[in-house]
Design brief:
Helices cover 38% and strands 26% of the residues. The protein is of the alpha+beta class. A five-stranded antiparallel β-sheet has the order 1-5-4-3-2, covered by helices on one side. The chain starts with 11 loop residues before the first helix and ends with a helix.
Length: 156
């Protein structure tokens, strides 16, 4: 039976079934992962924050308005957007600590009027950071994406 004559089932499951039966599931998944290319370093810190605005507002705040709400500490560089995919991905380089090569921010809607998740991954060239090095970086990520960003999007 050809794909042209086959009717997809309702919902995502139907599309997944057809892609799998056609033998193109691997190539489609590969294209999607190339579209949202993550840094090649190791993920050393993962954090997740919940915010009231939806992902498009969060994306605009991180990409376009970060100079207005981000307060840099001494020694921190101004983060540049190395890669972005509207409305769900932003990669910032260089930033924070010299050991952190990139910070990836993934945005996802929670649901109808539920706000959005901000998932933050910090990448380093080494596989694991010692606790002494990881703790201040986690704290700083919390200040930036848990407090400063929240203040900006909630009270701008």
């Amino acid at each position: 039976m050809s794909l042209k004559n086959r009717r997809p089932k309702a919902g995502w499951g139907g599309l997944a079934t057809i892609l799998h039966q056609s033998g193109r599931a691997w190539s489609v998944a590969r294209r999607v992962s190339r579209m949202t290319n993550s840094p090649t370093e190791y993920v050393v810190i993962r954090r997740r924050y919940k915010h009231a605005p939806h992902d498009a507002v969060m994306y605009d705040a991180i990409v376009d308005e970060r100079q207005r709400w981000l307060v840099l500490r001494p020694g921190e560089l101004v983060p540049e957007v190395a890669e972005s995919h509207r409305p769900d991905l932003v990669v910032l380089r260089p930033w924070l600590d010299p050991v952190i090569a990139a910070v990836e921010v993934r945005l996802a809607n929670i649901g109808r009027g539920g706000g959005s998740w901000v998932k933050v991954w910090a990448y380093a060239t080494q596989g694991e950071l010692p606790t002494d090095a990881r703790r201040p970086i986690r704290h700083r990520l919390g200040e930036v994406f848990g407090a400063e960003l929240r203040d900006w999007v909630d009270y701008q």
